[in-house]
Amino acid sequence: MSSPFDIEEMFPDDGDHPVRLPRRQAGNSPQGLAVTLLADYTLRDLAWLPSAAIAALLAEAQVSQTGARAAISRLVRRGVLEGSRQGRHTFYRLSRSAAADLASGGRWILTATAVPKPWDGCWTLIAFSLPQERGTQRRALRGQLRWLGFAPLYDGLWISPHELTPPDQARLGQVTGTVTVFRGRQADLDTVTNRDPLDAWDIAAIAGHYETFLRRWRPLLPQVSAGQVSGAEAVRARTEVMDTFRRFPTLDPRLPVELLPPGWLREPAREVFAAVYDGLADAAEQHVRAVVARFGGSPHTGIRAHLTTDILAGTVVPATAPSGLLPG
């Protein structure tokens, strides 16, 4: 099983989609950081931010000015950001398409890590056939299957403990390829070649990622509760905890607790994530507003730190931006 930092797309591109959100990769990707920052503080109102403010916030995460400018430019080319120039200043905001994907993705991250319903003992299997020369379509299909919580049991046969919902079916239908879907129970064979469907996931590795996450973030909770984390540190912590936690639904897509080792850490990790992300929201929001004001933007227009409750409720992306949110 690959590391969560090797998963090519948390929001896979189906080939016809108007935006291509950046790849999730090892370390701090400038494009990924920029998207996380804008999603965490401007998603609801599609607020415009001065380019200099975005660069300053990225600089606090050790991204150079050159790296920040390159990241912004690439995100515009991908259709993730859109720009507006006023005098000598340039402003950027999330495009509506990207914002809709991010809102959907954020809700998926939290619902996929919630306590699952009792499992009915059945597996969904997806068999597909695509020639090797159609590598782009194969990658797109695999990306969609990962997104839907599937893992490869064998080459060309992917498995999930959950049924495909109508939205899942529609999403899967966007990908080119010959696909057959089954759902049923495993028939145990009295042979050493019998493979447990759960073997499609590296359970020990997933448990290790949970343990690493908790070791990193649990010690911060007393400082969060005491209000001792503020300013740039609060923004960095919220960005990092989100960027790490968002990988768990792909690693552990609501695998049935009946099949997992005792003391599975999915719920403790989710609780710690919420405590850090929500607990630092006010301090982080104040800092983002101060940075935006420093570079000529309105510090109070459309800048709001999202909470886990906002994400779960589903952010409604406006069809058109209110005039008061335009730069200037």
UniProtKB/TrEMBL annotation:
It comes from Micromonospora sagamiensis. Pfam families: PaaX (PF07848), PaaX_C (PF08223), PaaX_M (PF20803). Residues 31-96 form the Transcriptional repressor PaaX-like N-terminal domain. This is PaaX family transcriptional regulator. Residues 117-188 form the Transcriptional repressor PaaX-like central Cas2-like domain. One of its GO terms (biological process) is DNA-templated transcription. Residues 201-289 form the Transcriptional repressor PaaX-like C-terminal domain. It comes from the Bacteria.
